[in-house]
Amino acid sequence: MNIIETIKKSLIWKFLEKIQQWLMIASSIFVVIIMCVVVVLRYVFRSDLYGIEEIVLIAAFWLYFIGSSYGVYDKSHVKADILPQMMSKKSQAFLSVIISLTVSALCILFTYWSIDMIGHCLKYMPRTTGLRIPIVVSQFSIFVGYFLMSFYSVIYFLEDLFGFIEMRSS
To answer: Where are the beta strands (DSSP E) in the chain?
Structure first.
């Protein structure tokens, strides 16, 4: 068993999958319930929940970035794969290595930028206008999402690279 298979069968890998699923489900349910409550309050009781949009926006940030990282984990993110279908198996494997290297590099770059953004946010501590919630709460989801995307994309890059090397040697 190689290192990639060991990582993919590890408890950490499984734990990350479960926590992402839980966060996606919880944030989805939360957003739906809050939106239903807002609609009922607004159109039935002619009332409003002060600052609720800020809370929904934070939950939506977490939903979006955890969902994005889960898409990378699940390899279900959007991709254009018409060109590889017209190539040989070795060319497909090489292209897969190049694509996964590019995705990994970009995810790592965005993770770095998110750390910088959080540092800036912690330095100045901006808050939402209504409920005065620290902006870092929503921005931390960007870091977590990109960190997980980086982790998964590096693992898949190594998997593609080892597969390509193995294909070339045989």
So the answer is: none
Angle between helices 11-43 and 52-74 (to 10 degrees): 150
Question: Distance of alpha carbon 53 from its chain centroid, rounded?
Answer: 22
- Stated pTM of the model: 0.91
What CA–CA distance (Å, rounded) separates 99 from 84?
11
Cross-strand partners of 67? none
The predicted model gives 75-103 an average pLDDT of: 86
**Radius of gyration of the chain from Cα atoms?**
20
CA dist 9 to 69, 92, 164, Å? 18, 26, 22
How far is residue 27 CA from its own chain's centroid?
14
| pLDDT of amino acid 1 | 54
Q: Can you tell me the distance from the alpha carbon of 5 to that of 38, in angstroms, rounded to the nearest whole number?
A: 47
Q: How far is CA 8 from CA 37, 45, 83, in A?
A: 41, 51, 29
Q: Give CA angle at 169 (166, 170), nearest 5°.
A: 90
Name the β-bridge partners of 134: 127
Where do we find the tokens 């005065």?
Answer: 132
The conformation of residue 129, written as its DSSP 8-state character, comes to: S
> Looking at the predicted structure, is the pLDDT value of residue 146 above 80?
yes
How far is 129 from 133, CA to CA, in rounded Å? 8
